[in-house]
Amino acid sequence: MWDGVTTGLSTALVPENLLLVATGCITGTFIGMLPGLGPISAIALMIPMTYGFDPASGMILMAGVYYGAIFGGSTSSILVNAPGVAGTVATSFDGYPLAQQGKAGKALAIAAIASFAGGTMAAVLLMIAAPALAQVSLSFQSPDYLMLMILGLTAVSAFVSPGKVLQALIATVIGLMLSTVGTDPSAGIQRFTFGSLDLVDGISFLLLAMATFALSEALLSVLKRDDRKADELAEAGEDIGSLKIEKEVFRQIVPVVGRSSVTGFFIGVLPGAGATIASFIAYGIERALAPVREKLKFGKGSVRGLAAPESANNAACTGSFVPLLTLGIPGSGTTAVMLGALISYGVQPGPQLFQNNPDVFWSVIISMYIGNLILLILNLPLIPYIARLLALPKQLLVPLILFFSLIGVYLVSFNPFDIYMMTAFALVAICLRLFDYPMAPLILGFILGGMMEDNLQRTMTLYDGSFRFLWERPVSFGIAILLVAVVLTPIVRGLRAGASHQPK
User: Fold this and answer.
1) Given a cut of 50, is residue 158 above it in pLDDT?
2) Which candidate among 55, 101, 205, 241 keeps its CA 20 to 30 Å from the CA of 423?
3) How many Å apart are CA 44 and CA 62, to the nearest integer?
4) How many alpha carbons fall within 13 Å on the CB side of residue 22?
5) How far apart are CA 390 and CA 392, in angstroms?
6) DSSP string, 386-413
7) Mean per-residue pLDDT of the chain
8) 49-95 pLDDT, tens per residue?
9) For the CA atoms of the chain, what is the radius of gyration?
10) Which residues contact 174 (CB under 8 A, 6 or more apart)?
11) Closest of 253, 249, 240 to residue 382, by C-alpha
């Protein structure tokens, strides 16, 4: 492990990579504050900028953007009750009441410290847990990879709210269908290209990610004009009060941060979970554990209710890198986009990453320590100034997103056809979004589709077209049981709920 730490330090402490960490943190903080934009859109915008980088540097930048966005999302949640990202919704429960009481500075300082502590503790746990999981996963073969990817697809239900599972499944199927466009890797024949030479190599992941997230998000913000908080946003940074945290308050939040960080990390490890689920669970746990007098303060400006989700969501972000790096399964919609970026770099995430690309593996972990420290140093003194950036006019923001999206895709391929196809996909994505179809499952299906097909072909060759690997290989058998449990649990829960509501 210590050899890995040394490798990570030698890569992460290169001046260029330190600059990338700082750039990612600042960019993520800024984008995370803006309601409507999230880490997925930010990372999608970063991908074309990283194409000339080595894989380690590219991942360092995108990881910085990821936890920077979660870090920055708390600012708009606290000041104007408008969460920049879903993971900071629970932060607004007590953060916004504190701001209304004239304690916005104090709330922002608590959020910054809790985020730093949560991210740092989770990075330590990641350093310990990831190599252990990597050693276990060395026994994986093609059948086991196939089952893992199918398990990853079942996690789409966690990307969406209850009642939207069908839309998530349809979006996943669309992603799987899009992954089959191009040339069959085994037979070498063209599929679904409609005679177009531009589709022979398939659809670019970058193109699809930019179209479904960044470009469609920008166009939707134009269609959905919402200026309800314009005045509030403009005045948000004018008077935030003192940033000082009293000793008594500090004593209250220390155990809360410790518990919530551990909770958030282990929830983040679960494929399909993520910062949003982690923040709500941590909030619920602390409310249950709080003394009666403190329990009454929850929802009205409790420092415990603020520290818990802030430390949990940052810890969950770090935890989501465990299944991504060690198993090749994205733990959230954001890490699904990062998985695609890794593959586009020529790096295969999964059990072999620890051996084949130790610089990528360890530099990402070490950069998390550095990134969290940079975020704390930047955010605490700059809170009054950062808050004023919330009032950035949409007339400036949207053209910038459109410019970087279109130019970024064109500079990768220098093919005008990609611009046309990207625009078409963005229009389709807008239609799907208007009907509440989530985009993360679509991207997940697209990314895992090609890998599933490849491993399925290898498995069928090894086992002569038989599915006996399901019971002959212990790893595949174990994953299959877990898969059945994941699929059946919500069905059984739904049937029980339906039975309990039937009239007697």
Assistant:
1) no
2) 55
3) 9
4) 10
5) 6
6) HHHGGG--HHHHHHHHHHHHHHHHHHHH
7) 77
8) 777 788 888 888 888 888 787 777 777 777 766 665 666 767 877 88
9) 23
10) 442, 445
11) 240
